[in-house]
Design goal:
Order of helices and strands: HHHHHH
Low-confidence stretches: none
Largest sheet: none
Number of strands: 0
Number of domains: 1
Mean pLDDT: 94
Radius of gyration: 16 Å
Shape: globular
Helix content: over 70%
Distance between the termini: 18 Å
Structural class: mainly alpha
């Protein structure tokens, strides 16, 4: 499994992908020990049809806490978020949860783009630009998370 400490954003995206994989192919739940364990957790937590595992939610809360801290402490980070905010607000407005956090919106954006790539669908230049901005924000957060070693 992806390491939360090494890259918390990739870790969250990986768990979401594995959840969707198990929803689409439940017969694969016994293919590996990792899939078996994730499938068991999904059943225990009642997220077999929708929602996310608590371990993904916990990681999301940790990265959101770091995001809030950096907004107060890092002017360059704050400027990057301010530049990205209009696009994130547009994305959030198109969901059933328009009050989700900016970090969750960044993760959802990247996950949706990943799904489009898997379907061999193109994304617009504007979407690619937002993707690049969101990726930079999440890379910075993940690097800072790793360097602070919050996961201990």
């Amino acid at each position: 499994m992806k390491s939360k400490r090494d890259n918390i954003a990739e870790y969250i995206l990986y768990i979401w992908q594995m959840e969707d994989y198990l929803r689409a192919f439940p017969q694969q739940a016994e293919a590996t020990e990792e899939l078996h364990d994730l499938n068991e957790m999904m059943h225990r937590e009642g997220v077999v049809e929708q929602g996310h595992l608590q371990l993904a939610q916990n990681a999301l809360h940790e990265i959101e806490d770091l995001h809030a801290q950096l907004l107060d402490e890092d002017a360059m980070y704050r400027a990057a978020i301010i530049r990205l905010t209009p696009q994130l607000n547009l994305l959030k407005a198109k969901t059933d949860r328009p009050t989700m956090s900016d970090i969750e919106a960044c993760l959802i954006l990247l996950y949706q783009i990943m799904m489009l790539h898997l379907q061999h669908r193109e994304i617009s230049a504007a979407t690619a630009s937002v993707q690049q901005q969101a990726t930079k924000v999440l890379q910075f957060l993940s690097r800072t998370y790793r360097d602070l070693d919050i996961s201990k």
